[in-house]
């Protein structure tokens, strides 16, 4: 069972458990969770808080990978691997905060859809080079690539479902320029 959980990843388990639980709360009257896209946004935020915080947990905390361990997953062509681990952690936490606010959900989800493909090379590098994470084997690519594609699809669905009034107002000047 532990191998199965390692393959899925704790973040995936958090996402697939949190979304239906939040939707159940919506069915019980919590308006914030009245629709699936809002629940998905909050579940994705929970997942990102988990993955973002892990990058800053001290090495002494057992059961979690260290930042140095995550830096070993960064492909050699990426400069400053440890700094990139911290940077992606900050971005994940900022995106998580953006996903829970209705007014920033569109931008956060769009940002997540851009960030996720940028993180995939680290997972591919780890899998191809047998780099363990927290003592467990890297997630196999046959699972990780479709999983990442699903995360991107969910992020795009959240962005599409979000009220993009603010985004439309920000993009309006660009539309005028391109139509000339």
SSE arrangement:
Elements: H1 2-8, H2 10-27, H3 36-54, H4 67-71, H5 81-100, H6 105-128, H7 141-161, H8 165-179
Helix pairs in contact: 2-3, 3-5, 3-7, 5-6, 6-7
Helix content: over 70%
Ranges where pLDDT stays below 50 over 5 or more residues in a row are none
Number of helices, counting only DSSP H or I runs of 4 residues or more: 8
Q: What is the overall pLDDT average?
A: 88
Following the backbone from N to C, one meets helices and strands in this order, namely HHHHHHHH
How many distinct beta strands?
A: 0
End-to-end gap = 60 Å
Question: What fraction of residues sit in β-strands?
Answer: under 5%
Major beta sheet summary:
none
Radius of gyration: 18 Å
> What is the overall shape?
globular
Structural classification: mainly alpha
Account of the 3D structure:
It is built from eight helices and no strands. The model has no long low-confidence stretch (mean pLDDT 88). α3 packs antiparallel against α5, α5 runs antiparallel to α6 (105-128) and α6 (105-128) packs antiparallel against α7 (141-161). It has 180 residues and is mostly helical. It has helices at residues 2-8, 10-27, 36-54, 67-71, 81-100, 105-128, 141-161, 165-179. The protein starts with a helix and ends with a helix.
Keyword list:
180 residues; mainly alpha
Could you give a short description of this structure?
With 180 residues, the chain is mainly alpha-helical. The chain has helices spanning 2-8, 10-27, 36-54, 67-71, 81-100, 105-128, 141-161, 165-179.
